[in-house]
């Protein structure tokens, strides 16, 4: 029968880094480790304890794979949300610039309107005074 240290030594797990290149290779090596464990479990020469240890290792590896898949999915979602956020910020900046331009246009038109009103009042008072109407 196999020694427990031999079983544990065959499946040492290194800490996985967070960058995507190593996580892809880590997934591949984890899947290889899963198949190695599965072959060992199928071996009839294992004791109950050894089989249980291997089943636990297999479950832990599956859990790590699932967790890594979820993490990759969330990272992708974060990237999409960052991109969408940048797009929205650009739209907000463009709209703020448009508002600024419209405010300047409004101020200019308001000033022109005030000038036209003053000209109209001056013209009307001039016409009325020429006709002989007293305007005060």
UniProtKB/TrEMBL annotation:
Segment Disordered: which positions? 1-49
Read off the InterPro entries from this record.
Answer: bZIP (IPR004827), bZIP_sf (IPR046347)
Compositional bias (Acidic residues): 1-15
Q: Where is the BZIP domain?
A: 46-109
Which stretches are annotated as coiled coil? Answer: 85-119
Q: Where is the composition biased (Polar residues)?
A: 16-35
Q: Does the keyword Ion transport apply?
A: no
Q: What is this protein called?
A: BZIP domain-containing protein
Classification from the root reads: Eukaryota, Sar, Alveolata, Ciliophora, Intramacronucleata
